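[Solved] Which block belongs to which protein?

Original post:
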Amino acid sequence: MSRATQVLADLDDTQDWQEQLYVYLHAHPELSMDEVETTGEIARRLRSLGYVVHRLGGGVVGLLANGPGPTVLFRADIDALPIVETTGLSYASQRTATDRTGVTVGVMHACGHDVNVTCALGAAQLLADTQSEWQGTVVALFQPGQETAEGARAMVADGLVSRIPRPDVAFAQHIFDTPAAGQVAVGSGPVLSEGDSIRITLYGRGSHGAMPHLGVDAVVLAAAVVMHLQAIVARELAPGEFGVVTVGSVQAGQKSNVLPSRATLLINVRAYRSEVRAALVAAVERIVRGECAAAGSPVPPQFDYYERYPLTFNDPHVTARVRAAFEEHFGADRVLELDPVPTSEDFSVIPDAFGTPYTYWGLGGFAADSTVVPNHSPDFAPDMQPTLRTGTEAIVVAALAFLDGPAPVTEPPPRAAWDMRSWAGLRPVTQ
């Protein structure tokens, strides 16, 4: 019997509380960097399992030291989105919150972070309950603010690197609309794009709507910018090179007979290569400045960059090892190839801060014959099972692929000291 089978032997016993926790989390979502109830529940559960808990940058880290050996980190993101839920579930979120602009918004786990948390806590319990089957240190990290690209950086800025042992390897999984529920998808290299959001303020000169010749029309300027931006990918990137430039919001004016003096655009740029990202950003700025000059804008445009996401680039050696472990446990038919996804993540900020290799895989959430709803939809409601079960298994199997096996029975493994400074300098798994 494999170690994974031994550790997962009590998975049926965790199913009831995992489903109850998932329902609770789904009904009680919290916006990015305000996950107070969520982190409280996570910390309480980790402490009950024997983890040493740290609260860092709005998130929670649980450490479980079990003798000498590799240190394995797995991350779950915990925040929800400002979306009014329309799933019709009996446990649908009814919550509202005030966002940073002072607007009251609905709150919903429309990206499946409630699934991610539930699976990670299930894996944390199974590993804690079966310490005779492995040696090393498990780091269960629960990250806030993934949807705003703040959480990973906040945890690093709050001393993450100095407060926990350096991981030898790091993992993250995320629920997607594909593959099907019960399956996982793994891939090497770039799997999630770099992403930038840009708030661009265009300046005109206000005037009466009946006297447009006396002003500079910010609405016409904004329209010219939007149209010209759509040519960047089509005419400035080589065919086959991935890039996205999206105008997600255009705001200008409040009355039909008033030429507004400014317009605001919200732009999103994505790429799989840093060189392409830089070219897209440069093209956006060039076009905006050019259109402003052509319109006679009295003030140069303003560019504010926010929600900046790094590239997620899976280490090929770590990914190959995880794939092999998945295929052995799930069977090759349940392990698919993860093609690059155009969405973005800030997970890599954490392993990159340590210089740790990582891999990020996809978890299926919808039965093969069901209607698939994409992440960030108000109707996003993945199948509870086998999704929770498969996600929990995947984290355990990946962790055990790197944690050392049990020591000989004649020489029980020593318990590691809780002073984590003794763990400095562990060998990287790729050496």
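(Second protein starts here: sequence line, then its structure tokens.)
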Amino acid sequence: MTDSRTVAAVVLAAGEGKRMRSALPKVLHPVGGRPMVLRVLDSLRPLVGGPLVVVVGRGGERVEAVLPEGVCVAWQPFPRGTGDAVRCALPHLEGHRGPVVVAYGDTPLVQEATFRQLVAAHLQGGYAATLVSAVVEAPAGLGRVVRGPDGSFQQVVEEADCTPEQRAIREVNTGLCCFEVEDLREALTQLVPQNAQGEYYLTDTFGWLRARGRRVGVVQVREVRQVMGVNSRKELAQAEETLRRRTLEALMESGVTVVDPDATYVAPDVRVGPDTVLLPFTVLEEGTVVGSGCQLGPGAHVRASRIGDRVRVLWSVVEESEVAEDCRIGPYAHLRPGTRLAARVVVGNFAEIKNSTVGEGTKVQHVSYLGDATVGRQVNIGAGTITCNFKYGVPGKHPTVIEDGAFIGSDTLLNAPVRVGAGAVTGAGAVVTKDVPPGMVAVGVPARVVRRARPQDER
């Protein structure tokens, strides 16, 4: 940019979204796991130093509830068009003297670079207003950009008001634009609803400014999909697909192998280290960080978790957990929130772990449940082991502690709160209701300590 003046922005988010056929306000429908309006704000905020205003209408309380701190909210009581919506935001722009970007809350694919391109062109051209246009194959439903014989901008005509000749124009208004704030204020006072919809069109301000000798610029973007709004479930799916493809391409360029992009879903904020392989049907949700040299999938579903280097996850779910390097998870395992695995842990078939810490080299391989447990290093958790962390009539969850080198026999029930000491052994089918001292063997129902453990007890 050649001008250092502060930029403000107005995001229009008051549309009813009737074609979505949803009780949820349109701009709150997620794309890439994040509400559309927040994706727009994510792209805008790095270049906005002045007021950032979101205009809401019906259902606005729900929109306001998700907005980040520092964002102003303006209310449009009645849906009277985009010009009226921007007019509702003007009180929040009092004292602002720089350019104002106008964007839409249902355009989740717009990138920061596009907003910067718009503002740079506006400032460099010395325009009163600058709009973003795109050339599309099927312009139906979109306002046409009408140019003069010399190619200069003349006006934007909404489709309902187009002549047959204007309908044939393929250059359309995307809705994104930038104004000098005083020109915007003046033009908005002159709007009249003389159109087929009976609304106040923001696009009418361009023609009004030009007719009074003010300069209006046009920035034409090549990637049409990023600037088009989402107005239906079909378009929501198209936006999701575009964002997913953009995310996967960036990962592949950084050294990640994506075996089948059409069957792999990665949220835009996910970080994945080089030489990791993502196999089909893998889903990596927001807040996930994956290390280098991992193999995730087929069927890995990871949410808000940290995965270390060289980890293998196969047909399993990992939620809000921490997994250190060289672990193996699955198939059909479930790490629930609060799980922390140290290095080289194995979690196998149909094992479930919740709010537990598992020490280095421990194996939890078959059909077992660890809840609210602390498990030490080099522990064997036998098939069918269950930590009974909840008692009828007793509030809260109760902890189980299994110390280093213990061997938990198949079908052991650990009736928490209970501790199994270092090197201790439980027999198959034991129901442990009392602490097992270090190095001792406990068997039976209820389990009782019978002798000191021998090496063969651990095989």
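Accepted answer:
You had them paired correctly. Confirming on the second one: The first strand starts at residue 8 and ends at 13.
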